Task: structure prediction
Amino acid sequence: MTGLLDGHIALITGGGSGIGRGIALAFAEHGATIIAADINLAGAAETVAMIGGNAARAEALDVTDRAACNALAAKVKAEVGNLSILVNNAGIVRRATLDTENALNDWDDTIGINVNGVFNSTYAFLDQLKVTKGRIISIGSIQSFVHLRNCVAYTTSKHAVKGFTVALANELAPHGIRVNAIGPGVIRTPVSEKLIQSPERLAQLLTHIPMGRYGTPEDIAGPAVFLASDLARYVTGHTLVSDGGYLTV
Ligand SMILES: NC(=O)c1ccc[n+]([C@@H]2O[C@H](COP(=O)([O-])OP(=O)(O)OC[C@H]3O[C@@H](n4cnc5c(N)ncnc54)[C@H](O)[C@@H]3O)[C@@H](O)[C@H]2O)c1
Result:
């Protein structure tokens, strides 16, 4: 443990799997108290068990439910303390074209979770983050910058995360709150498993990744620790890409 995040209270939405779990484990290792909040409570509980000790708790949360976000914020304040790090990580990907049967649902769900969910969690914890002069980190994507085929809603949602980050960083700087995002490339999690399991699709992807490998949640956790810590004390409004060079091709 380095103590980089000693004394911090961090909530990670979607902390029950993949990148959110990786960030929760890394934050705990660096000294933060963790709240893993996920619509899948069992997943969040598993993350907490992996952390061990008393410095973590699991909470059920659907980020599309504004009232639930507000209720969780009140609970955290009363039972743990004022939040100092919020990670807006919960997100979904639906890969399909707009002429498919589920296009309307895919659009509503993707924007509902990836955009409105980011807003709901941030809004719910804003008062606490003002008290702690906290940090907000949202998980965007390389699709905050470019698009991959067949996911118009997802690309739109991740461009929105980047815009939200810039606008909110500007608005909250006078309150001492830093707002940043991370743009992961192809990271091995349940979301990307199908892509990675297909030899043709993996080979095709790797031609676009100069470092020659897909990423892991740890490849995102490092940048998250940096952005959450005082090492990044003058960094705000930035989307830090961690993609093995994907965007250089
Ligand atoms: N894996 C990748 O290649 C990749 C690349 C770029 C960006 N991302 C982004 O990283 C983030 C995490 O993705 P991941 O790959 O770890 O996926 P994942 O499926 O492993 O984890 C997502 C977590 O979010 C939770 N979740 C889903 N809907 C929710 C809701 N309404 N409320 C609360 N929690 C909810 C899920 O239960 C799950 O635990 C997402 O925002 C995703 O868009 C992933």
